[in-house]
Design goal:
Elements: E1 2-9, E2 16-22, E3 27-42, E4 45-50, E5 56-59, H1 62-84, H2 96-104, E6 109-119, H3 123-129
Antiparallel strand pairs: 1-2, 2-3, 3-4, 3-6, 4-5
Length: about 150
């Protein structure tokens, strides 16, 4: 049985977000659909900015910016679930300056949707999966140059 944790229904073309949590509280599904993503050149890069959510990513091409947006958003969702237990803090519109710029360039806005699944383990379970007691750093010191 899944419980609805967070729902969003934004006014821009019916963008929606739904966060479902399994009763074990370790398994989550997040569905996003009809999000507006504004893709613009940013000097030598391209930037993909969510409008109904204040999240963005860059790439060397528009396609790479889209890919980085999708991958990074999934990771950001995972971190929000781990840190806060839901995605509520992520569901904030982009700043008004970005929304105004996007309104001037509606042809550059693309629709985006994704479904992601997340497993959130308690720290003890995560430590059992990665069995180490700490990190040992080995630093190579630069040797003085003898002339």
């Amino acid at each position: 049985m899944a419980n609805i944790k967070t729902k969003l229904s934004a006014t821009a073309k019916q963008a929606k977000a739904l966060h479902l949590e399994h009763e074990d509280q370790e398994h989550h599904a997040v569905l996003l659909w009809n999000l507006s993503v504004f893709i613009v050149p940013d000097e030598k890069f391209w930037f993909a900015q969510g409008l109904e959510i204040n999240y963005g990513a860059q790439g060397d091409t528009p396609e790479e910016a889209k890919k980085h947006f999708q991958e990074g958003l999934s990771k950001t969702i995972n971190q929000h679930i781990r840190a806060y237990g839901d995605i509520g803090r992520l569901l904030k519109f982009a700043p008004s300056s970005i929304l105004k710029e996007a309104a001037k360039h509606k042809a550059a806005i693309m629709r985006f949707g994704q479904v992601s699944f997340h497993e959130v383990l308690e720290d003890t379970k995560a430590q059992e999966l990665v069995p180490f007691d700490g990190i040992e750093y080995r630093v190579l010191r630069a040797q003085p140059v003898i002339q």
